[in-house]
């Protein structure tokens, strides 16, 4: 038995976890290359130009690029990057558990 809300199916939860995981993956990439990301942001004429540049450089989706741009600089510290990576790992584990529950390889 899971602690999932009775109205939320495993499929719905898996979809949500995957969406979160995509964002955390992008943030992990960005925090791992923070200097280059900051160069992209500082060199861009406006937020839309920065978003497009991040999409091109890193292959981010629009949502991922916006999420990266919304990360506060204080989140770039080693301890906060570790917390972000830990959360990402939790999401990977949860997605795997949900896929097993749904009988997916």
Could you characterize what this model shows?
The protein is an all-alpha fold and 105 residues long. The mean pLDDT is 92. The chain has helices spanning 10-32, 34-42, 47-58, 62-70, 78-101. The chain contains 5 helices and no strands. The protein has a single domain (10-100), classed as Orthogonal Bundle (Topoisomerase, domain 3). Helix 1 (10-32) runs antiparallel to helix 5 and helix 3 crosses helix 4 (62-70).
CATH topology: Topoisomerase, domain 3
How much of the sequence is in beta strands? under 5%
Low-confidence stretches: none
Radius of gyration: 16 Å
Write the CATH homologous superfamily. Answer: Topoisomerase, domain 3
Give the total of domains. Answer: 1
List keywords for this structure.
mainly alpha, Topoisomerase, domain 3, elongated
List the helices and strands and how they pair.
Blueprint: H1 10-32, H2 34-42, H3 47-58, H4 62-70, H5 78-101
